[in-house]
Amino acid sequence: MKAFRSVTAPAAVLDRPNVDTDQIVPKQFLKRIERTGYGEFLFHDWRKDPGFELNRPEFAGAKILLTGPNFGCGSSREHAAWALEEYGFEVVVAPSFGDIFHSNAIQTGLVPVTLPGEELKPLMAAAADGSELTVDLEAETITDPEGGVVRFTMEPFDRHCLLHGLDAIARALQHEAEIAAFEARSASPVETTALGR
Amino acid sequence: MAKTLFDRIWGSHVVHEEPGEPTLLYVDLHLIHEVTSAQAFEGLRLAGRPVRRPDLSLATMDHNVPTEAGPIRDPLARAQLDALRSNCSEFGVPLYATGSGHEGIVHVIGPELGLTQPGMTVVCGDSHTSTHGALGTLAFGIGTTEVEHVLATQTLPRLRPQTMRILYRGELPFGVTPKDLILGTIGRIGVDGGVGHVIEYAGDVIRGFSMEGRMTICNMSIEAGARAGMIAPDDKTFAYLEGRPAAPRGAEWERALERWRALRTDEDAVFDREVEIDVSELEPQVTWGTNPAMVAPIGGVVPDPGDYDDPDARAAVERALAYMDLEPGTAIRDLRLDRVFIGSCTNARIEDLRTAAGVVAGKRVHQDVRAMVVPGSATVKRQAEEEGLDRIFEDAGFEWRLAGCSMCLGMNPDILGPGERCASTSNRNFEGRQGRGGRTHLASPAMAAAAAIEGQFVDVRDWEAVPA
User: Nearest to residue B350, comparing CAs of B184, B210, B183?
Assistant: First the structure.
């Protein structure tokens, strides 16, 4: 996973609450076994509507998505985070996120920034004409086109992982001895391999 | 210090913790299916890592399997199922494949095999993993990168979630089911009401529900935004588990019972958030919109966007009504249906099918309606057939299908056509969820079954014999 520090780019505004992962990537695209190739399916059904927000020419080249509360609610499909990233988004800013989507975004290297609605709405207005915003994860700031600065905070560990592009599995395996010790003291309640075929 | 059920399970699974970092938690059971696992196995292959504990892993095929006998025509679905088969074989993970006789929706087979046991941590690359919390487990859905993490390490790093208790008070009225209770709860707290929390459902109403009913409740925790929901185990839980294939036996069973009886929330334990809900006025629920919180009682009407003060909420209701092609003020009872789907990890266990069969026995599906029943697992299907439920459904004009996720999410050929309106016992009424342009109304098995007969929603309590 690549490290992220900051981005300056147009921000697409999708001011809707509860955007679910079925909208972000409809299920017909979940049958692929590859990790890549989902960007073209992002918001597949909604993009058929010429009036859909992401179809606006001013949002071409957007790398930041400004959206409503509970973004990414619903299914656990990580394909949602993959599709957003492949489409070109590096940051999603919302008042809140679906829990599983939020974890998936961190794992994918897509930066989920939580910002209260009253601070987000002015940014949406400022970005509506395609003006650039700057999201700086190191400083935990968003800078609007007029130079105004909004501060956000991220869970320190999540921020650390995103800033350094850390591989969680390698980190966990550093605790191999503790995992083995846990296994030695806690007998497994079940054994799937002992079930009849 | 007084502890919650969550505290007890969390505390007994800590592998490593240090300040400022997520806790490394041990995973007792990892369930796997075809849609969210292929990229995880590929990740292992690229890194040269084995599956650490195949004996704590179980895979099945559910999301995109056809529910009609015969070959899989969709080449992508077939390739994904083939990939699961070869990945399981390569990494030594046990697989209950289609045709094994044990396959089914991953959240139906875990409990029915007795694999899901009180006090365990259970994960799966599927958001409805919350279902397993009904047996007193900490169970939650994960993404594909986390699936790979569990395969490689049998652990997951987790920030400690907040805790929330929903305490139900009052007596549940006649004919009101667990599905109505959870839909009513989501309507009350909202689709983001549980974000960041693990919910414990409590109260005499919950104690009174069967294990199947409790699974319906916990299943839909994620529709309230909570990654996990749980219910403290009790004698019903133990009776449900006893004798199941993976359940402990003999002296081990007695020791397990002793451990399981300690899995409860202390009386003076503190939750981060407490919600009390009085159920004594609850009616059967039907969703009218495009998320599960957009719900009304059967005696209610489709709301008017003008009644919402918040402009964002008003816009969302307007969008939902446009998508659903509904006029404000329309009585829920007047919604005419094209399709009825009885199935999914929410409501396709044996008790759900018995209830639905009880409603339709001796009646005929309305001429304008195409109705289908998709059992939650091959085992449920077999049991239903032994009880003659398949005959009841087929005599009434329902299609009786093979087990799978089916039209809950429409990854297989079972989908709604554009504009079709469906009463569904599943869990999500999102736009296009059951097929592009399809319109989903979530309801209980009894309500969906009655709607199939009438061709429109009806208060099943008005019918002569409502099964308990």
Answer: B210
- pTM of the entire predicted model: 0.96
Residue A78 and residue B24: Cβ atoms within 8 Å?
no
Question: What residues of chain A, 72 to 131, have a C-beta less than 8 Å from chain B?
Answer: 73-79, 81, 96-100, 103-104, 107-108
Question: Averaged over A54-63, what is the pLDDT?
Answer: 97
> If you write DSSP's letter for every residue of B44-87 in order, what string do you get?
HHHHTPPPS-GGGEEEE--SS--SSSS----HHHHHHHHHHHHH
Alpha-carbon distance values, B174 to A19, B211, B265 (Å)? 36, 19, 29
Residue A68, CA atoms < 13 Å, CB-side half-sphere: 14
Nearest to B450 by CA among B425, B429, B426: B425
Dihedrals phi, psi of B277, to nearest 5 degrees: -130, 125
pLDDT, tens digit (0-9, with 9 covering 90-100), for B115-140: 999 999 999 999 999 999 999 999 99
Task: Give the CA count within 13 Å in the CB-facing half-sphere of A41.
Answer: 20
Asked if B143 and A76 come within 8 Å (Cβ–Cβ), the reply is yes
| CA pair distance B379, A139, nearest whole angstrom | 55
The pair of three-digit structure tokens given for residue B418, joined into one six-digit string = 């554009």
Beta strands in A27-168 (DSSP E): 64-67, 91-94, 111-114, 132-136, 141-143, 149-151
**Whether A27 contacts B409, CB under 8 Å:** yes
Kindly determine whether residue A20 and residue B291, on different chains, have CB atoms separated by under 8 Å.
yes
The answer to whether residue A177 neighbours chain B at the CB level (below 8 Å) is no
In angstroms, how far is CA B326 from the centroid of its own chain?
Answer: 27
Question: Given an 8 Å threshold on Cβ–Cβ distance, is A100 in contact with B58?
Answer: no
β partners of residue A89 = none
Model pLDDT, residue A196 = 74
How confident is the model over A94-107, as a mean pLDDT?
97
Question: Does A22 reach chain B within 8 Å, measured CB to CB?
Answer: yes
Query: pLDDT value at position B468?
Result: 46
Residue A59, min C-alpha distance to chain B (Å): 22
Cα first-last separation, chain A: 38
Among A192, A193, A195, A197, pick the best mutation site for testing chain B contact (most B Cβ within 10 A). A192
Nearest-neighbour CA in chain B from A147: distance (Å): 28
Please identify which residue in the block is written with the tokens 């875990």: B110
Q: Which residues of A touch B313 (CB under 8 A)?
A: 17
